[in-house]
Amino acid sequence: MFGKDLRVKDIREKLQKHYDARADVVQRDLRIHKTPESGADRSVFFSLHGSPPKGYGIYICGARSLNLYDHNGRRWQILGDINILDLDNFKDDDVLVADPPSH
What we know:
8 strands, 1 helix, mainly beta
């Protein structure tokens, strides 16, 4: 298969590291919102939990394109030919809960 395979967890890690690259930062939940369309017409919006949110991602299924934005709404990365392996495991308005801190 061509392109790059990612998991939703990888998207959270990219957004988290861009917002704060320190290793000791507590992970944040990632909220997942899907448009009602199916297949190639679907888009998925990701937001890194915070007040306001600390980063955003938009995945366009038909284009297999993932655009990542910082907490100010500035796009900082475009990833093309992306396949999100576990996207179907999440419902609309779902949350990828952050891993608890390790001690």
